[in-house]
Design goal:
This protein has 136 residues and is an alpha+beta fold. The chain has one domain (16-135): Mannose-Binding Protein A, subunit A (Mannose-Binding Protein A, Chain A, Roll). Helices cover 21% and strands 27% of the residues. The chain has helices at residues 6-12, 58-67, 75-85, and strands at residues 22-23, 28-34, 43-47, 93-99, 106-111, 117-121, 131-135. The strands form 2 sheets. It has a 4-stranded antiparallel β-sheet with strand order 1-2-3-7. The two termini are 23 Å apart.
Amino acid sequence: METITQEAATALKPQYLRIGEESEADGGMYAGIVRGEEGQPDYHLFLIASRDNKQFTWDQAMAAAAEVGGALPTRREQAILFGNLKDQFQPDWYWSSEQYAPDPGNAWGQNFNDGFQSLNHKSAEGRARAVRRLPI
């Protein structure tokens, strides 16, 4: 087994960000680490800056997130955003990227007032914020 010097080990460490810290290089505000599911790698989650003052249907929200180079957050990611960056959201309801499996006419959302996640019909209008993922 090859060993490396302390200086080399320090040089290999990635740049660490604190929760809520802006990262121009990574394109957003650092929200934390998300565990990968089903063989996928863990990743860093960044909240992309936005004006946060428009209401969207689910399809419009998905398209708006893609336009800024991101995606709507999953339900797990929304829970992390609620826990770590709640102050970056209006106390209102936001779309997630997840459809409701038994009825694809509905999708999940997150209330950033009380943390409750619920279903809404995709034609309903809600707020949306995009995220960016950086695999570890």
